[in-house]
Amino acid sequence: xxxxxxxxxxITPELVQGRVHLKCSYSPSPPEPPVQFRVLWSRLSSPGxxxxxxxxxxxxxxxYVEMDGxxxxxxxxxxxxxxxxxxxSPEQQSLPEDSKGFYAGIKFLPESLEIAEDGKxxxxxxxxxxxxxxxxxxxxxxITLQLSTxxxxxxxxxxxxxxxxxxxxxxxxxxxxxSSCAAARVAVxxxxxxxxxxxxxxxxxxxxxxxxxxxxxxxxxRDVKVTVRDLPTGNCYSFTDPHIITFxxxxxxxxxxxxxxxxRSESRAFEVHVRQWDCGGHRSATxxxxxxxxx
Length: 295
Description:
VWDE protein, Immunoglobulin-like, signaling receptor binding, single chain, 24 strands, mainly beta, 1 helix, elongated, Dev_Signal_Modulators, 3 domains, VWF_type-D, 51% strand
């Protein structure tokens, strides 16, 4: 019976004669007598809706479709649907089986981030799910991504709330493994802005820099949404003749003249020195801040 065949179609990327193809493989080996396969390739044209690209009937346990930049483009989510039937008896056929959707293009993992203003680095992996072709022998055998950040939806538009460890990354060709044919990493850190500005959302965008391959030219990867959780910032003060308010709210005065250590961290290389100078009248000694140095 063909109805109970478990074909389990799966899509993998492959370079064929220097051009990007997708291969639909299915198993197990069909029973005798000879069986043929009807393979329907489709892509997601809108949420929940598919558009047919190509159909073929083959005795082989695989089928190829080329990513030509027209019928099938980078950014598409592709499916293959396989039905088996006996040669000469097309009415004896198995139930059609769908592959999982294969996203062809560049992915960021994770696809979104939620981080805090605590100085920690969060690693984003940038990967290509399709192989990178080498058109020549020069250094064009890579995909360079220009990275940029943008503030989204703040009450007061300002600079983005995130900083990147690099402004561009290179995806270099290599053998495909799992869902990755090339990968790079970039670290994302929340900007500690000393402002109580609530949780803010920024966008990380990638743009291809001068792609040589026609397949990549019209392609823009999906953005990454980064939500930054606001953390309260510690404050200490030294003002007027100097009144001091410490991080934990203690208050005292310091009327001495000289250079003093105002604040020092015990966990990192950070300290603030103040210089206080005579600024009083004839009746009382008063000192004022006249200089500050911070490391």
